[in-house]
Design goal:
Blueprint: H1 13-34, H2 43-53, H3 60-66, E1 72-75, E2 78-81
Antiparallel strand pairs: 1-2
Amino acid sequence: MLDLAKPITGDSGDKYATKISLAIDQFLALEEKILPTPPSYDYEAAIERLIKGTGDSLTEEAAKTLMVRPDFSFSGSGSSYRKRKRTN
């Protein structure tokens, strides 16, 4: 391929643009599958899930205390939990 007498010519502008557009769409769809957005819960549902996730070993007061930690983030649409990496 490197030893050709002249570059390959032809009307391929539309063909490449269509292929690139399709490839970008497929990449974005794949990226969405690989990196889904984390689930979001309202404050009360997050407390209930935290209590159930610990085998009902937490009281509601203890769960609310844990919700203050930086592992939880709250926004207008709900809350999300970010699991912390262990350092030891």
